[in-house]
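Model it.
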Amino acid sequence: MSARLIYAFDPLCGWCYGFAPALRALRAAMPALQIDIAMGGLLIGERIGPYSEAADYITRASARLEAVTGVALGEAFKTKILADPTIISSSVPPCDVILQVRKAAPDRVPDVAEAIQIAHFRDGSDLNDPATYAGIMRQLDIKLDVMLPAPTQISDALSREFAATRALGLESYPSLLIGPSDDLRPVDLTYDPDVLVELIKAKVSVE
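Modeled.
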């Protein structure tokens, strides 16, 4: 299978959280498919700030998220994250952790990406807290001592990751590209697991 699927993802993207069941079904149905997560930095720079300042917007958007995807934000997220003015929304720490996992255990990146979103959007865990990631690594049995950067501390490696994702034209999340590396093509996004599996199977069979 020469085709690979590139998944434009951000840990703080609620729609990526809503896409998780479809991606999980795809991984189960096509375990040999190479899935590469590409991160462009949804909340970086001037967009970093207290979650509570965006609480009204997120609450309104969550209703549409649930209507479209069937996935709801957890009550713990609403009470622990949105209501706490000290918790900062920044893509930097979780994206940096995913880069660390990519280096230490590359085959576990999709598992970690999903677990980070479950911890945050379902269980109300702070993604700026090292304990959140220590728990995820224990849960997934990954031997990695995470080094967590500050919310505004973008490493050179993470800057390169964000630039590479933008160079692919991936600026919204979730988005998908499929094909050999020299002929990547966009995939129509669907949140329906069965439809996604059949769509990707058809794309791969054409390659």
